[in-house]
Structures are given as C-alpha cells and as structure tokens.
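Our platform keeps sequence and structure together, in a single record for each protein. Such a record has a labelled line for the sequence and another for the backbone structure tokens. Nothing more is needed to write down the fold, since each code stands for a local backbone conformation. For reference, a complete record is included directly beneath this paragraph:
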Amino acid sequence: MRNKIIIIVLISAFKINAQVNLVMNPSFEDPTTCSPQMSTCPLYILPNWGCNLNTPDCYNICVTNTVFGIPSNLLGYQQPFSGFGYVGLHTYGTFGPNVREIIQGTLLQPLVIGQKYFFSFRVSRGDSGVSFFHDKIGLRLSTSPQNSVSINNWAHISTSQLISDK
C-alpha cells in the first residue's frame, strides 16, 4: 500500500504541459477559397500566411484540376504530410539571379526569451519538370514582416544536407 501512495504522489508532483502549435494553419489546409488558380502573392487564400517574393503556389485537395490539385499537380505526385494541402516554392532556378519564393506566417503568440521551442517542417522535392536537389532550406524568426530577400539572406534554423526525397 505504501508503494502505491508513493507512486501516486510522485506522478501527481509532475507538471504536465501540453505542447501548443504556435503556427497558425500549419498544414495549409484552411484556404479561404478553393479556386482553380491557387497561385497568388500575397497568399490571401491562406489565412495567416503571406509571401515576400514571387508567387508561391497553394495545392489543396479541394482543387480538382491537375495544376493545383492533390495528389497529382504541376509539381508531380505528392500527398500532404498531414491535412489537405501544401505550398510549392521555387528555391533555386535557371530563371535568373535570386529567383526564389519565400512564405511567411504569424505565430499564435510571441516567443518568450529563455523559453525552449521545437521547430519542424517537411520538405519534398518536386518530381516533374526541372527538379533540383536543395540544401540550406530554413526558418527565420523576425518581429516584423520581411519585404525583400537578398542573396545574403540567413536563417536561424536550416538544413545542411541536400534534400533529394520526393
């Protein structure tokens, strides 16, 4: 009986915190519209997301064409990791210098200095047309929207290996 009481006391002494996802609309699954043309900048069709360069594309299962639909679309064949959508970005291309697409979002609440956070995102290489392997895809944190991107851009978190998975 004493062992049971000690175990119950020890378990109740631990503070359990649920992990909160601070990214709003993290799976790009809540478009405000379901249009055959899902390529816009800023990304008005994705609440809490915008872009600062070029025209990232939104892909969603609600679109029935083979350009912006899921799983078959302009990029090839790809199911969402979770939810009903994803975003397609050019990170490098032969179209000219600095041709890349970048998206940005607002967090649910500000980050707290000294608090530890876990960030993750999924990347998949397109498998149709010209397709490059990429590295240094990352995440940058800022207190204000970024309106331009230079070649010397940097990220707080980025990949170091080439991404070749599709």
